[in-house]
C-alpha cells in the first residue's frame, strides 16, 4: 500500500515507511532512514519508468525538481547524521502531530 501511494504521490510516504520500519522492530533512527531511503529509491525508480512509458513527464519541470531533491536529500542526510537520534525522533513525531492537527482543523 505504501509503495502504490508513494509511487503516485510521495508526500508522507517516508513517514509511513518509518512507522512500518519501527513496527518491524528497527529502533535506530539512522538505520531506519537508510532503509527508508533505499526503499524510496526503488519505489521511485519503478514509478519513473511507468511515467516515462506513459509519456506523462514535463521534462523542464522534472529536471528542476530532481535537482532540488538531489541537493535537499544530501543536505538533510548530512545534518541528520549530526543530530542525536532522540531529537530526530521527537521532531518527526512533532511534525506528524502538527500536520494531523492542521489537516483535521482544515476539514472542520
Give a quick precis of the structure.
Helices cover 83% and strands 0% of the residues. The chain is globular.
Features:
single chain; 108 residues; mainly alpha; 5 helices
How would you sum up this structure, described in words?
- α1 (2-8) runs antiparallel to α2 (13-23), α1 crosses α3 (29-53) and α2 (13-23) packs across α3.
- This protein has five helices and no strands.
- The chain has helices at residues 2-8, 13-23, 29-53, 59-82, 85-107.
- The model has no long low-confidence stretch (mean pLDDT 86).
- The chain has one domain (2-107).
- The chain has 108 residues and is mostly helical.
List the helices and strands and how they pair.
Elements: H1 2-8, H2 13-23, H3 29-53, H4 59-82, H5 85-107
Helix pairs in contact: 1-2, 1-3, 2-3
Helix content: over 70%
Beta-strand fraction estimate: under 5%
Question: Total number of helical segments?
Answer: 5
- The chain-level structural class is mainly alpha
Number of domains: 1
Overall shape:
globular
Instruction: Please tally the β strands and state the result.
Output: 0
Report how far apart the termini are. Answer: 27 Å
Q: Which residues sit in consecutive blocks of at least 5 with pLDDT less than 50?
A: none
Largest sheet entry: none
Helix/strand order, N-terminal first: HHHHH
Q: Average pLDDT, to the nearest integer?
A: 86
